[in-house]
């Protein structure tokens, strides 16, 4: 902002400040069955205290929306192949890849097979996100810059992004997928997979020998309750 006129700097600072999340006081959220408390430590990390699991997940969804709604919007659009509707033609390659791999379809299929407890958790988390949207709290400034109003969150949005995230953790360029013999795929799709890590909307690839997968882990069968390996 150093090269901007002083009045523009002042205006931008005021705009950004008004969009910061509320971190003190009381907020009424109708989905909660009992009061929940959120304490933010010196690093701004929220710590949630709730009377039951459902209220905990509602509060978590609300806090995620407070802190990361723009990132969440990009993530669900990247997973469902809807970035071009928001950003124009630049992410067309990303949308083609996401729709061809069918993260949205996989999310719907996953929902049909989830146990009831997992469905309840996702519904509670989603209710927290939508409570933020329904109460018309100030949106992150990126929404104003893009002139975009986000639609309500859906349980399938979370599942679709989960599928996209699975791809990002399992496909480093030095370990390309090998297709079974007889499986045909368009060449542009192979090119898209090979270049996925250079795409600004699907993640950055390994550079200078650095790998990906900060959340990648494995548990040996001797340490799991089922006796099976967990990847």
How many distinct folded domains? 1
What characteristic shape results from the CA principal axes?
globular
Largest sheet: 2 strands, antiparallel
How large is the count of helical segments? Answer: 9
Q: Strand order within the widest sheet?
A: 1-2
User: Percent of residues in beta strands?
Assistant: under 5%
The amount of helix comes to 40-55%
Output the CATH class name. Mainly Alpha
Q: How large is the radius of gyration?
A: 21 Å
What's the overall average pLDDT, rounded?
80
Helix and strand composition category: mainly alpha
CATH architecture: Orthogonal Bundle
- The string of secondary-structure elements, in order, is HEEHHHHHHHH
Q: Look up the CATH topology.
A: Penicillin Amidohydrolase, domain 1
Distance between the termini: 46 Å
The parts where pLDDT drops under 50 for at least 5 residues are: 183-194, 204-210
Q: How many β-strand runs?
A: 2
Short description:
The chain is mostly helical and 231 residues long. It has helices at 6-18, 53-80, 84-87, 92-101, 103-113, 116-134, 141-146, 155-170, 187-194, and strands spanning 37-40, 46-49.
What does this structure look like?
- The chain is mainly alpha-helical.
- It has one domain (20-178, 185-204, 216-223): Penicillin Amidohydrolase, domain 1, CATH 1.10.439.10.
- Helices cover 50% and strands 3% of the residues.
- The chain has helices at 6-18, 53-80, 84-87, 92-101, 103-113, 116-134, 141-146, 155-170, 187-194; strands at 37-40, 46-49.
- Strands 1-2 form a two-stranded antiparallel sheet.
- β1 (37-40) and β2 (46-49) form a beta hairpin.
- α2 packs across α4, α2 (53-80) crosses α6 and α2 packs across α8.
- The longest helix has 28 residues, at 53-80.
- The protein is globular, with a radius of gyration of 21 Å.
- The termini are far apart.
């Amino acid at each position: 902002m150093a090269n901007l006129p002083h009045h523009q700097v002042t205006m931008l600072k005021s705009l950004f400040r008004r969009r910061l999340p509320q971190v003190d006081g009381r907020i009424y959220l109708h989905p909660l069955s009992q009061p929940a408390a959120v304490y933010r430590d010196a690093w701004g990390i929220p710590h949630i205290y709730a009377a039951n699991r459902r209220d905990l997940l509602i509060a978590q969804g609300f806090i995620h929306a407070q802190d990361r709604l723009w990132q969440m919007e990009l993530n669900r659009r990247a997973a469902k192949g809807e970035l071009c509707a928001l950003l124009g033609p630049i992410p067309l390659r990303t949308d083609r890849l996401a729709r061809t791999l069918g993260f949205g379809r996989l999310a719907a299929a996953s929902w049909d097979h989830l146990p009831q407890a997992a469905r309840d958790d996702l519904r509670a988390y989603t209710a927290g996100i939508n409570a933020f949207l329904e109460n018309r709290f100030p949106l992150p400034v990126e929404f104003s810059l893009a002139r975009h109003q986000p639609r309500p969150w859906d349980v399938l949005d979370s599942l679709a992004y989960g599928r996209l995230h699975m791809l990002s953790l399992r496909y480093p360029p030095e370990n390309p997928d090998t297709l079974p013999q007889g499986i045909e795929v368009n060449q542009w799709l192979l090119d898209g997979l090979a270049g996925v890590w250079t795409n600004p909307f699907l993640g950055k690839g390994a550079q200078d020998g650095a790998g990906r997968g900060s959340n990648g882990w494995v548990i040996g069968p001797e340490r799991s309750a089922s006796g099976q390996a967990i990847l």
